[in-house]
Every structure is written in structure tokens, then in C-alpha cells.
């Protein structure tokens, strides 16, 4: 394969530069990753042994893709390149050298759950307040110290760090850090940050090891260099110190990980570290249409802090950027799903050609539900599907238990979450006792004092009283009111609210988003039954629907903008273009933060090859209150000549959504459910009767559906449903505790 002909002049110069340090700082889509890829292929075709090449990427996916491309040029030898993320490559090296730093070769890698459990135990042993010393918060502090290569000793002796911790009322973090490290060490385990930290330790304390790898890696390359942290910077600097054959590529306008310790300063350091440095500039974008490239340029211009560079493209003008306004987040979801469907059908595209990008994970809910309802397969990259997320499963388990206290899976999940001192052994005992005494677990739980003795028995009984209380409320409230009550009184909201880390906040937002979804369900005039029971059945159906993408089938990609870095898609939707959402409310306090947020928007725009859609909703629920949303300032920052405004549903009457649904029903599957309207208007003095004596055959009047006859009564547990055949709207199933009915017998 003649890869040289696949490069423009500047790209070629960068590929052919094989010796000495080089830096390629260039705009999005200008072929930085392509240059790295072909540069590796070129080195190998010039006789460099692939074992002597180290290439570091930001994600495993990126490494896989790069290897695959190189394989196309040079064949199987590509397998021998040292290529991967910093974490994967250096864990491999640490395994080989483990004994030098006192670790077993088969050391365990702790994931963040393992780390948090360990921290929780340490906090407990130290008798510290676990509300203050939240595992996430403590781990966040330790992690950021490690990424700056601050050891336990330095941490404890640094007056600034100590003052910070004192001010945050957490003076013992240094001590926890110390215990955490010694426990990990004793257990032969490293967490993610240790993989980089210990690599630095290895290279610092064992010059022979450093020397060995300096000899192995004749060539070092780093993609997405703008997002490396200090620890990563130092590792690459040490490795390249001997040969000085290091090439880094990046784009300062795409630096979006400052909150994880990435330091844009590394680019400036690089210039200082290598006076011989060759700098290559790539200015031509090959990815996107003119409209997209120019729109992206017009946005990033608003940032003060950036190396000036103008990106151009010879690609076609392309369609204008579509801005779509919706009335609510659910409508936004529907509009996105239907637009994808319509585009796919009319332009013979594949679902693989579409990506939906959002600022926060919680936004995936509305998108996922809309896609599921239209049977469009999708995959979430770098995260779980909304209903698979831990905190959502936790709250749903409470809701399920409220509706059905015999639900053992739900019971197991939440009996001790949030923590109420019911250990695993006790939990086990509950199940054994139930088996032995031939009772249901729920019966044992309600009488735990009698079965299990005092202290823990009381804790369990209190839990059962709480669930019964929830069930009582569920009898007389709609799904939203009871779910909100449960979120609060189960302790989940408090538990998550105290956790101020990025992950903690995401979890809190997810809970809020679940409640928003329930509120929308309750407010939906099409839903007759507003009970918690009905809501749970409704979501069980959507979450069951098999819209998970098969490995080979086509699918729409959903992800946060952060995980979209480096990727490209024909059609991109950036959703939730609203103030306080994007830019995020938390990024409005300083120019630096706002500029990082704007770089994030720049990354998002530049993922699109052909067509870009920006969508926003004019209202969203927040804790059950409908809140008006203002469209994002970022929309106004795009030069309007690249934009076409389009409006969603109700503003215009005949709208995209209806049109598309119409098309869809012509093309495939059954038409969407028709809403049969009733002409009936309830009299002003409508007053519901007591329905406790309602029976099949009775004639009734409903304030919305008008007159009808009860065809069947259905009682299950505490809930009674009436199936009524209405004269005008046909058969409806109503939950008696909510239905307002007048009896005409
Ligand atoms: N000279 C070229 N001729 C044709 N296509 C090219 C050329 N250079 C790059 N491309 C294509 O342009 C697209 C963008 O390239 P690439 O992903 O390497 O850009 P990048 O600078 O790494 O972008 P990002 O900043 O988003 O990571 C890819 O599809 C790539 O194959
Ligand atoms: Mg790239």
C-alpha cells in the first residue's frame, strides 16, 4: 500500500521525519492520528523492529483502530508494536519489573469499587466520620496527588495540602492515604493511578530498569498529548531522554480533561525540554464539510487562551447545521430518534452513521427511551445504559419492593443500602431462617426481632416499617409523589448528595433524571394509570425490549462528549444545548472553566463529517418541577450563516416529528397508537363517588373519558383495577385508588 500518496505535503513531512523530537499541534480532523499511524508503518517499512516502537493512545479503542490500520500497510508485524493506553502499556512493564519495587508479578489491579471499599474500611477503623470522609472524596484527593506524583510523605509534609484538607474539615486524608497505600502494598494490589505512579517510582529508583526501556523504545509516540497529566508527561520524558525520538500530537483547542489532572502546560514544557524540537502544522481538515469546519472555527475564536490556528477544508460545503428546538427533553429524544430514522431511510444510511453526544450521562435516559420505542438499536460507549446504572437499580429496587415486598432480589439489593448496619451474615441468616421456618423472607424481615435477637433485629424491623410506610403512601399517591418520597426517605438522595466528586454528581443527576422520567410519565395524558405499579410495568417493558446492539449489527452510538474524542461519525447530534447544561452550571465560575467547556463544544462539533444537529429543549423537569430552559450561549456563538433553525412539535402544528412518524408508519411496523379523543366535557360540579362497591355491569362517568360500563374488576393484593368500556374512547383500565368516577346505577 502506497501510504505516502495518502498524505498531503505537511503530513508527509511529519511522517518522513524519523529522527529527533517532533510535535504536531494541529486542529481537529487534520490527520494527526493518521500521521502517527502512517509514521509507525513507515518506520517499520524502513526496517525498525516493531518491538522498538511505543505508541500511546487515549483509549483502548483508539489503539485497536490504529493497530488495525497499520496492519493493513505492513501486515502481521503490527501485532508486535507496544501500543495501548498509558495504563495498559505500563501495567505490562510493571508486571515484568514488579519484584524491583516489591510487588508480586501477578499483582492485582483494583478498580475504583475495590479502592472505595478499602477506603471505607480504613475510615471505619480510624473511627472517622464517614459522612465527611466519603470514599469518593478521599479517593479523589489521593488520586489527584498521585497524578502529580505526590507521595504519602510529601502529602503529609506539605503545608499547603494540609491547610486545604483542614479547611475542608478533612485533616486526616494524609493518614488515610498512608494506610491505603500500605494496605494495597500488603495485598499486592495497585489501583489505576498506581500504575503510572509506580512506573515513575521504578524509573526513578532503578536506573537499570529505565535504561533497559530506553533501549527498547527507540521511538516513542503519544496521541492526544494535550490531555496527558504530569505523571504521564514525566514517564514519556524519561523514556525518550536517551534517543530523543519522541513525537507527540495534539490540539490545545481540544484539551478537555483538566478536571482529571490533564495539564495543557505539558505542550509548553515539551518545547522547553527539547530545544531541537521540530514543529509541524497541519491546517487542512479532511473530516468535515466546510459548514462544520467554519462553524467550529467561529466557536473556538471566543476563547482567549489558545494557540491561534485556522483550519480550512477542501471538502464540500455540505448542508447547514440544523438547530432543533423541542418543548421537553422527551420530545427532544423523540425528535432525535425520528430524525435518525428518517435520514437513514431517505438516504440509505446505516445506523452506524449516527452518534448522539451529550454533556452529562443522565441525558441518555430520554434518548434511550425514544430509541427503544422506535426499535432502533444503539450502544452506549464508555458507560452503562441508564437503567443499568447502579444508583438507578438501587432506587428501582426500593420502588419494586414497595409494590411487592416479596421481591427477594430487590430486598437483597437495598436491605443494607444506604448502610443501616445489616451485614452480609445477617442477611444470609434471614434467607436461611425463611427456608427453615417455611416463611417468606418478607415475613422474617417484619419479625426479625423475634427471629434474630435485638440490635440487628430492630434495624431490620425498622427497614420493614419503612417499606410498609412507602407502600401505604403508594396507595394514595401517584408514582412520582411516592418515588420522590422514597428517594428521600430511603436515604439514597442524601447519600449521593454528599458526594461532591464528578462521579458522585453524575449519580445524583441520574437519580434526579429518573424522577424526572416518572414525573413525565405521570403528567402524560395518554397514561390512564398513574400508579407506581403501572410505571414499573411500563419501564420493565422498555428496558426488556431487546434494543441492545449485537456485535455485528448496526447501531446508533451514544456517549458523552468526553468519550467521543478522536472519533468521527457521518451524522452527529449534540443534545441538551441549554444554559446550565452545556455550558454546565459548574463551569460558569471562571473564564478558564468556561473556556474548557467551549473546547468541549469544539470537540463535539468536529466529530461530524457530513451533518450536524444541535438540539435543545425549552423545558425540563427538575425534582418534578417543570423548569423553563434557556438555549445555550454556545448556539449564539456559531456564526448564524452556518445554521438552519428548525422547530419541534407543538410550536408549529405540522412538524418534523409528526411528519416523520407518519413516514415511519408507512414504511415499517405498526402505526403509532392512535389517541382517541373524547368529546365529553365534565360538568363543573363533577364530584367522584365512593367506588368501594363498584362491580362489573355498573354504569359510570369519568371526567375525561365520559360514560362507560364496567366490564371487569381485578383485585391483586391491595390494588384494585376496573376495566371499563367507555362509549367514546373504548376500553381503559383504571386503578381505583386514583380513578375519579361517578356511579350511575
Ligand atoms: N491526506 C488525507 N487524505 C484523505 N483523508 C485524510 C487525509 N488526512 C486525514 N484524512 C482523514 O480525515 C479524517 C480525520 O483524520 P484524523 O482522525 O487523523 O484527524 P485528527 O487530527 O487526529 O483528528 P482529531 O483531532 O479529532 O483527533 C480521517 O477520516 C482521516 O482518514
Ligand atoms: Mg486524532
From TrEMBL:
It is an enzyme of class 5 (isomerase). Keywords: ATP-binding, DNA-binding, Helicase, Hydrolase, Isomerase, Nucleotide-binding. Gene3D superfamilies: 1.10.10.160, P-loop containing nucleotide triphosphate hydrolases, PCRA, domain 4. The keyword Zinc does not apply. PROSITE patterns: UVRD_HELICASE_ATP_BIND, UVRD_HELICASE_CTER. InterPro entries: DExx_box_DNA_helicase_dom_sf (IPR013986), DNA_helicase_UvrD-like_C (IPR014017), DNA_helicase_UvrD/REP (IPR000212), P-loop_NTPase (IPR027417), UvrD-like_ATP-bd (IPR014016). Its EC number is 5.6.2.4. Pfam families: PcrA_UvrD_tudor (PF21196), UvrD-helicase (PF00580), UvrD_C (PF13361). GO terms for biological process: recombinational repair. It catalyses: ATP + H2O = ADP + phosphate + H(+); Couples ATP hydrolysis with the unwinding of duplex DNA by translocating in the 3'-5' direction. GO terms for molecular function: 3'-5' DNA helicase activity; ATP binding; ATP hydrolysis activity; DNA binding. The keyword Isomerase applies. Residues 290-566 form the UvrD-like helicase C-terminal domain. ATP binds at residues 26-33. One of its GO terms (cellular component) is DNA helicase complex. Residues 5-289 form the UvrD-like helicase ATP-binding domain. Belongs to the helicase family. UvrD subfamily. This is DNA 3'-5' helicase. It comes from Pontibacter actiniarum.
Amino acid at each position: 500500500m502506497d501510504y505516502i500518496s495518502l498524505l498531503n505535503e505537511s503530513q508527509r513531512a511529519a511522517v518522513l521525519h524519523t529522527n529527533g523530537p517532533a510535535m504536531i499541534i494541529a486542529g481537529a480532523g487534520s490527520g494527526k492520528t493518521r500521521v502517527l499511524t502512517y509514521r509507525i508503518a513507515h518506520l517499520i517499512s524502513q526496517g525498525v523492529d516493531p518491538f522498538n516502537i511505543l505508541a500511546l493512545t487515549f483509549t483502548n479503542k483508539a489503539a485497536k483502530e490504529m493497530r488495525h490500520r497499520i496492519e493493513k500497510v505492513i501486515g502481521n508485524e503490527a501485532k508486535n508494536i507496544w501500543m495501548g493506553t498509558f495504563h495498559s502499556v505500563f501495567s505490562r512493564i510493571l508486571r515484568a519489573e514488579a519484584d524491583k519495587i516489591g510487588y508480586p508479578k501477578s499483582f492485582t489491579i483494583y478498580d475504583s469499587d475495590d479502592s472505595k471499599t478499602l477506603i471505607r474500611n480504613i475510615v471505619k477503623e480510624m473511627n472517622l466520620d464517614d459522612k465527611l470522609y466519603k470514599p469518593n472524596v478521599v479517593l479523589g484527593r489521593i488520586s489527584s496527588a498521585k497524578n502529580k506524583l505526590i507521595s504519602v510523605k510529601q502529602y503529609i509534609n506539605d503545608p499547603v495540602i494540609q491547610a486545604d484538607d483542614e479547611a475542608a474539615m478533612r485533616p486526616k486524608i494524609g493518614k488515610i492515604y498512608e494506610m491505603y497505600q500500605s494496605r494495597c502494598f500488603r495485598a499486592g494490589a495497585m489501583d489505576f493511578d498506581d500504575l503510572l505512579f509506580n512506573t515513575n517510582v521504578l524509573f526513578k529508583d532503578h536506573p537499570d530498569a529505565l535504561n533497559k526501556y530506553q533501549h527498547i523504545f527507540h521511538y516513542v509516540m503519544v496521541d492526544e498529548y494535550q490531555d496527558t497529566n504530569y505523571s504521564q508527561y514525566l514517564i514519556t520524558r524519561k523514556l525518550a531522554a536517551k534517543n530523543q525520538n519522541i513525537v507527540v500530537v495534539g490540539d490545545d483547542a481540544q484539551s478537555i480533561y483538566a478536571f482529571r489532572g490533564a495539564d495543557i502546560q505539558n505542550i509548553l514544557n515539551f518545547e522547553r525540554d527539547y530545544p531541537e524540537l521540530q514543529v509541524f502544522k497541519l491546517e487542512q481538515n479532511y473530516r468535515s464539510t466546510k459548514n462544520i469546519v467554519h462553524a467550529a472555527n467561529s466557536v473556538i475564536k471566543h476563547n482567549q487562551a489558545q494557540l491561534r490556528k485556522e483550519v480550512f477544508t477542501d471538502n464540500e460545503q455540505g448542508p447547514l447545521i440544523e438547530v432543533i428546538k423541542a418543548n421537553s427533553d422527551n420530545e427532544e429524544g423523540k425528535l432525535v430518534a425520528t430524525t435518525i430514522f428518517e435520514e437513514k431511510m431517505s438516504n440509505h444510511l446505516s445506523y452506524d452513521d449516527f452518534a448522539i453526544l451529550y454533556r452529562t450521562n443522565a441525558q441518555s435516559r430520554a434518548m434511550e427511551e425514544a430509541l427503544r420505542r422506535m426499535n432502533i438499536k444503539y450502544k452506549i460507549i464508555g458507560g452503562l445504559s441508564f437503567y443499568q446504572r447502579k444508583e438507578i437499580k438501587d432506587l428501582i429496587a426500593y420502588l419494586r419492593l414497595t409494590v411487592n415486598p416479596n421481591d427477594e432480589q430487590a430486598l437483597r439489593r437495598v436491605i443494607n443500602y444506604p448502610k443501616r448496619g445489616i451485614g452480609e451474615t445477617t442477611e444470609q441468616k434471614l434467607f436461611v431462617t425463611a427456608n427453615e421456618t417455611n416463611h417468606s423472607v418478607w415475613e422474617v424481615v417484619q419479625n426479625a426481632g423475634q427471629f434474630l435477637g435485638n440490635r440487628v433485629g430492630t434495624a431490620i424491623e425498622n427497614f420493614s416499617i419503612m417499606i410498609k410506610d412507602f407502600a401505604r403512601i403508594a396507595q394514595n399517591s401517584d408514582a412520582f409523589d411516592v418515588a420522590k418520597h422514597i428517594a428521600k426517605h430511603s436515604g439514597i438522595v442524601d447519600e449521593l448528595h454528599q458526594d461532591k466528586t464528578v462521579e458522585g454528581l453524575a449519580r445524583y443527576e441520574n437519580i434526579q433524571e429518573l424522577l424526572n422520567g416518572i414525573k413525565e410519565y405521570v403528567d402524560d395524558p395518554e397514561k390512564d394509570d398513574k400508579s407506581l405499579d403501572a410505571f414499573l410495568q411500563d419501564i420493565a417493558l422498555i428496558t426488556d425490549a431487546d434494543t441492545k446492539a449485537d456485535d455485528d449489527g448496526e447501531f446508533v452510538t451514544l456517549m458523552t462528549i468526553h468519550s467521543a474524542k478522536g472519533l468521527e461519525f457521518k451524522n452527529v447530534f449534540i443534545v441538551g444545548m441549554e444554559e446550565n447544561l452545556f455550558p454546565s452550571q459548574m463551569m460558569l465560575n471562571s473564564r478558564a472553566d468556561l473556556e474548557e467547556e467551549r473546547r468541549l463544544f469544539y470537540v463535539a462539533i468536529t466529530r461530524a463529517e457530513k451533518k450536524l444537529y444541535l438540539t435543545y429543549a425549552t423545558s425540563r423537569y427538575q425534582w418534578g418541577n417543570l423548569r423553563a430552559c434557556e438555549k445555550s450561549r454556545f448556539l449564539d456563538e456559531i456564526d448564524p450563516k452556518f445554521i438552519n433553525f428548525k422547530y419541534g412539535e407543538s410550536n408549529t402544528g405540522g412538524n418534523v416529528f409528526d411528519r416523520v412518524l407518519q413516514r415511519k408508519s408507512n414504511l415499517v411496523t405498526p402505526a403509532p397508537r392512535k389517541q382517541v379523543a373524547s368529546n365529553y366535557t365534565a360538568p363543573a360540579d363533577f364530584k367522584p363517588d365512593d367506588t368501594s362497591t363498584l362491580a362489573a355491569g355498573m354504569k359510570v362517568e369519568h371526567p375525561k373519558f365520559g360514560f362507560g360500563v364496567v366490564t371487569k374488576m381485578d383485585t391483586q393484593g391491595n390494588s384494585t383495577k376496573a376495566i371499563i368500556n367507555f362509549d367514546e374512547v373504548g376500553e381503559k383500565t383504571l386503578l381505583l385508588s386514583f380513578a375519579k368516577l361517578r356511579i350511575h346505577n
